[in-house]
């Protein structure tokens, strides 16, 4: 006699992995659109805050923290750069902040694709 094993349920809905990809995509969209789709970045941050408790204890929790830290530190550096434009160095510091945020998004997203957590080097 052969015994029938139940088939695994297909994944339905939004898994944490898909949600994390969505958060990175929304953040990147808001960034590459030069603020035109700034609402996308806000949506990414709101999603990260809302779903962070569900991700606790998983590799995705580190990604949520990574995105949130990137957002808040990036916002701080962009704000300071805006103030520094008064002494004509804000454009340079703003560019440096932009490169840093793009680097963090790319590093985190690539780590997600490989199934790892992003390291906290920077």
Please specify the SSE layout and strand pairing.
Elements: H1 16-32, H2 38-55, H3 59-84, H4 90-113
Helix pairs in contact: 1-2, 1-3, 1-4, 2-3, 3-4
Structure in words:
There is one protein chain. The protein is mainly alpha-helical and 122 residues long. It has one domain. The chain has 4 helices and no strands. Helix 1 packs parallel to helix 3, helix 1 runs antiparallel to helix 4 and helix 2 packs antiparallel against helix 3. The mean pLDDT is 86.
In terms of DSSP E residues, the strand content is: under 5%
Main sheet summary: none
List how many beta strands DSSP finds: 0
Overall mean pLDDT: 86
Number of domains: 1
Radius of gyration: 18 Å
Low-confidence region ranges: none
Which percent range fits the helix content? 55-70%
Oligomer: single chain
What brief labels describe this structure?
122 residues; 0% strand
Summarize the structure.
It contains four helices and no strands. With 122 residues, it is mostly helical.
């Amino acid at each position: 006699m052969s015994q029938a094993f139940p088939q695994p349920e297909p994944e339905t809905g939004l898994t944490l992995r898909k949600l994390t990809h969505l958060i990175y995509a929304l953040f990147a969209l808001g960034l590459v659109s030069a603020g035109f789709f700034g609402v996308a970045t806000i949506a990414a941050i709101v999603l990260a805050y809302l779903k962070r408790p569900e991700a606790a204890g998983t590799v995705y929790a580190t990604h949520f923290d990574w995105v949130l830290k990137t957002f808040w530190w990036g916002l701080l550096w962009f704000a300071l750069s805006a103030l520094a434009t008064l002494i004509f160095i804000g454009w340079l510091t703003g560019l440096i902040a932009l490169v840093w945020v793009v680097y963090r998004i790319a590093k985190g997203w690539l780590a997600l694709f490989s199934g790892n957590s992003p390291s906290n080097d920077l």
